[in-house]
Amino acid sequence: MAKTKISDVIVPEVFAAYVIQMTKELSALIQSGVAISNPKLDELVTQGGKLINMPFWKPITGEEEVLSDSDSLTPAKITTDADVAALLIRGKAWSSNELAGALAGDSPMRAISAQLAGWWSRREQAILISILNGIFATALAGTHVNNISGASGEAAVISGNAILDTKQLLGDASDQLTALATHSAVYTTLQKQNLITFIPNSRGEINIPTYMGYRLIVDDGCPNAEGVYTTYMFGAGCFGRGDGVPVDITPVETDRDSLASDDILINRRALVLHPFGVKFTNNTVSGATPTNAELATGANWAKVYEDKAIGIAMLKHRIAEAPELDQSQN
């Protein structure tokens, strides 16, 4: 069991207050409004089961009929389907030794407690990125992805035209897309294009960066590999977020090993983070609830909304022209 020992802390000769060094890993995706808390999901989290079913009425279809004085109209029907979210049950425990805190002059357990909310926020970001990897692997790969990274020269680099082509994937429903989530290196590239503008928030306290009218969410959790970056376009609330306490789950628990002078803090959560319109199929989940790797597996996702109703799109691109291959080495 890992625990905070004397060797893990700086023992001050003269007591000085400890300052908690907060991580610089941001979680802008979670805090931006892309994922919005949903009271119905909060309620469903507490009702048990590995999957959460969310039935919906499918759009009515067909053509109108010409009225006739001899033929009756032909009744049509409305059908249903179900969106399905995965219930995620996660937990973490921390341990510290009483003597380590006494010699350090500050409480490791208090420092852990103060950082807990921020830590969970970053873990939710990791979950969201895993889900995005999963739904774009298969379910949305053919309809919601604009991949220009393999083009030659400037055609592979992110630009205003590339953003417009990406939003066009949703056709006349593209106006639901309101935000761009991108890596900080991409943000710097867009700044160099001099197309970033800033608008004040409702209280005039901070300026929000925008690009071509889309709110910019800068988050280094957005994937990049070998010079290829992924930028996402989102509609507000395209992800639903729910929290709850199922029966027999103890959210916060403390324990103590008196003989070893160890204090233990345990935190457990049950949550839902779900992209509306793409159901979780649970095809490859081996445990009680899915891991992040299983959320990132394309076989676990299937599209249930019509394409235009799924307010997410992906642009894969570069921020500089790819180097040309040395033909002499072939």
What does this structure look like?
- The chain is α+β, with helices and mostly antiparallel strands.
- Helix content is 21%, strand content 30%.
- It is built from seven helices and 17 strands.
- The protein has helices at residues 28-31, 39-45, 98-104, 108-137, 160-167, 184-192, 292-295, and strands at residues 35-37, 51-57, 80-86, 88-97, 145-147, 177-182, 196-200, 207-211, 214-218, 224-225, 228-235, 239-244, 252-257, 262-275, 278-280, 301-303, 312-317.
- Strands 5, 6, 7, 8, 9, 10, 11 and 17 form an eight-stranded mixed sheet that branches. Strands 1, 4, 12, 13 and 14 form a five-stranded mixed sheet that branches. It has a two-stranded antiparallel ribbon with strand order 2-3.
- Mean pLDDT is 85; it is low at 9-15.
Features:
about 325 residues; globular; 17 strands; alpha+beta; single chain; eight-stranded mixed β-sheet; 7 helices; five-stranded mixed β-sheet
What's a concise summary of this model?
Helix content is 21%, strand content 30%. It has 330 residues and is α+β, with helices and mostly antiparallel strands.
Write the layout of secondary structure elements.
Blueprint: H1 28-31, E1 35-37, H2 39-45, E2 51-57, E3 80-86, E4 88-97, H3 98-104, H4 108-137, E5 145-147, H5 160-167, E6 177-182, H6 184-192, E7 196-200, E8 207-211, E9 214-218, E10 224-225, E11 228-235, E12 239-244, E13 252-257, E14 262-275, E15 278-280, H7 292-295, E16 301-303, E17 312-317
Parallel strand pairs: 1-12, 5-17, 6-9
Antiparallel strand pairs: 2-3, 4-14, 6-11, 7-8, 8-9, 10-11, 11-17, 12-14, 13-14, 15-16
